[in-house]
Amino acid sequence: MKKIISALLVVFLAAALFAGGGKESKMSYKAGTYTAAAQGMNGDVTVNVTFTDSAIKSIEIGAHRETPGISDTPIKQIPAQIVKTQSLAVDAVTGATFTSNAILNAVASAVEQAGGDVAALKNKKAAVKKGAAVKKSADVVVVGGGGAGLSAAISAAQNGAKVILIEKTPLLGGNTIRAGGPYNAVDPARQAKVHAASDGAMASIERLLKVEPKNDKHKKYQAELKKELDAYKAEKPNRLFDCVALHILQTYDGGDYAGKIDFIEKLCSESLSAAEWLENNGLVWRDEIVICPGGLWQRAHVPQNSAGADFINTNKALADKLGVEIIMNCRGESLIQKDGRIAGVNAVQSDGTPIVLEAKKAVVLASGGFAASKELRKKYDPLLGENLQTTNNPANVGDGIVMAEAVNANLIGMQYIQCLPLGNPETGGLNGWIGGRGVEYYYQVNKSGKRFMAEDGRRDVMTKALLEQPGSFSYVIADSHLPFTNGKNLWGDDVENLVAEKKIFRADTIEDLAKQIGIDPAVLKKTNDDFNKAVETGKDPEFGRNLFGQKMDKAPFYASPRMPTVHHTMGGIEINLNAQVLDKNGKVIPGLYAAGEVTGGIHGKNRLGGNALVDIHVFGRVAGANAAKE
After folding, report:
1. Cβ atoms of residues 565 and 335 within 8 Å
2. In this predicted model, what pLDDT tens digit does every residue of 220-265 receive, in sequence order?
3. Phi and psi, residue 189, nearest 5°
4. Distance CA 500, CA 538 (A)
C-alpha cells in the first residue's frame, strides 16, 4: 500500500509540474496608471505606465534630459516592445544603452507599484521568429548608417543610382551622432570676422616652413603657404590668417607625416565645397568659427542645433526624399564575389533572418572604426588599457574591416589609435560638460588646480599629459563668455540639470568653484590669473599655448570633470583617391569602395580635431558618386 501511495504521489506531482510548465502563468496587477523614474545618461527618465488587472496597457515617456537623436530610438521602441511582448526581457538599443536601461528600470518600478511580478517579467523572453531568407537588389549597397554611409548613399542616389543602406543597430548615426560637430574648413567669408592669431600661433606656422620636405607635394605647399603668409603680412589685416595650404600642412605635420599627402590635399581642398553641399542638403551652420580640441587652428564650423545629430538628421531626411532604402537591425556578414568583382553583401537581421543584397554596380563599406573593440585595440596597440572607455558607438568593432580583409583588402595604419583628454568619467562619451564649443572657451586643471598642458595642442600629446596626472583626472574650467543655446550645451544637455546632479559645478567666483571641487582656492585663483595674463599677452610661458579667446573673468564659472577616452582609429582599409578599396598587391578590388573611419592612411599617426567630419563627407561623397558610375 505504501508503494502504491508513493507511486501515485509521483504521478500527481509530475502531472502538476507538466501542467505548470506547459501553461504560461497569468500576470496580475492593480489596475491604474503609475509613475516612476530611473537614471539615464543625463538624468532621470520618467515613465507613466497604465495597467489593466492582467496586462501592461500603455507606456508613455514623461520628463527626461536624454541626448536628442541618440535617445529617440529607445524612447520610441522600448515601450512598444514591452507592451507588445508583455515582458521586461527586452534588448537595449545598441548605442543608447543608458536610455534603454533607464526606461526598463523605470517600468520595472511601476510594475512593482502595481503589484506585478518583476522577476517573472524579466524572465519572460519573447520568442523571436526567424524569417524566411530575403533577397534584394540595388545598384549600390552601403554598409553602415553613420555619417559616411549616409553621405555615400545620398551621393550615389544624386548620381542616379538605386541605393540600399543597411545599419546593424536600431539607431542611425554611428559615431557622427555622438560627435561635438566641429567641421574644419578654410572659409574666408566666415573667418574674416575672426581676430588675428597671437604671435605664438603665427610662429607655429613659420615652423612648418622650416621642416625638411618629405616629397615634392610637401615642398609645393610649403611654397604656397609662404606666398600666402607674405601677402598677409604685407596687408597687415586685423583678421585671422588661414589658407588651404596651412590646413594641409598642419594635417600632414599633425599626423607625423605618416598620412598620405594626396589624400590630405583632397580632404582639405574639398572641405569647404563639402560643407556647402551639406548646407544645400539642409544643414544650418552657426556663423561663428571656433577652435576644435586638437584642431590646431580656428577653422571649425559647428551646426546650429544638436552637434553631430544635425548631420544625421539632415542627411536622413534627404536620403528618404531621394528614395534610399534603409534597413535597420541588419548586420553585414560577408561580401559576395562573382566574376572577379564584389557583387553584393550577405547580411542577417537581428531576428536571424538572412538577407542577400545584390549590388549591380558596387558596395560601399562605411561601417566605422574599431575603437569599441577591446580585442582589436589590444591586438594593434597593447599599451592601451582595457579599462579605457570610448566615445564611440559600442557597435564600432571593426566589422567592415574584417569583411574587407576576407576578400584580400589591404589594411594600413591599424596601430594608430587616438585618445582624447575630454571623456565623461561615467560613460567615456563626449557629452556632459561645459566648454565644448571651442578650445578658446576653457582651460584644464588637475586635482591640485594647476594647468598641466597646452589645451590647443595635439590630441595625443594632450592625452599623454592627462594620463600623467593623479588619477588621469582633470577639470575643464570655463566661464560665461561661452554662449548656451536655450540653456543647453553643445550636445543638448540641460546646463541647470547638469549642475543639479553635480555632473558639473558652478559658482560666482573662482574661489567658490575651487571649494566645490576640493581644490585650494588660492591655487585655482592663481591659475586663473596666470591664464588671463596669457590671454592678454598672447603668450603662455609655462606650456606654450598659442590659441586664446577672451579672459576667464565672466561669472558664473564652471568646472567639468574629464578623463581620457578612446576616440578614433586612424587605421583601416586602404583606398585610392576614388575611394576604391585596394588589395594587398595595391590593385583595385572591382566593385568595392570604402569611406570614413573604416579606412586608413589619411590622418597618419594622429588626427586633427575637426577633420573626421570632413573625412566622412568628402570621401563619402566620392565613394557614392563613383559607385553609382561603376
Report:
1. no
2. 999 999 999 999 999 999 999 999 999 999 999 999 999 999 999 9
3. -65, -45
4. 36
DSSP labels, 149-190: HHHHHHHHHHTT--EEEE-SSSSTBTTGGGS---EE---HHH
Residue 325, sorted as left (phi over 0), alpha (psi -120 to 50) or beta, turns out to be beta
Which DSSP helix (H) or strand (E) runs through 318? helix 308-321
603 is written with which cell numbers? 590622418
Residues 451/531, Cβ–Cβ less than 8 Å = yes
Relative to beta strand 163-166, strand 134-143 is parallel
The verdict on whether 459 is a catalytic residue reads: yes
> Among residues 605, 566, 604, 601, which one has the least CA distance to residue 586?
601
**Sheet strands (E) in 232-329:** 290-291, 298-301, 325-327
Q: Which domains does the chain have, with CATH numbers?
A: 32-123 (3.90.1010.20), 134-372+386-416+570-628 (3.50.50.60), 420-565 (3.90.700.10)
User: DSSP code of 597?
Assistant: G
Q: Could you tell me which of 351, 365, 549, 357 has the C-alpha nearest to residue 443?
A: 549
**What's the pTM?**
0.88
The per-residue b/e assignment along 129-158, b for 16 or more CB within 10 angstroms, e otherwise, is eeeeeeebebbbbbbbbbbbbbbbbbbbbb
Give the type of residue at 313: N
Would you list the DSSP string of 21-63? HHSPPPP----EEEEEEEE-SSSEEEEEEEE-SSSEEEEEE-S
Say if strands 588-594 and 354-365 run parallel, antiparallel, or are unpaired. Answer: parallel
Which among 178, 459, 506, 562 is annotated as catalytic? 459
- Collect all residues with Cβ–Cβ distance below 8 Å to 506 and sequence separation of at least 6: 499, 513, 556, 557, 558, 559
Tell me the residue length of the chain. 630
**pLDDT tens column, 602-626:** 999 999 999 999 999 999 999 999 9
Q: Give the DSSP letter of residue 488.
A: B
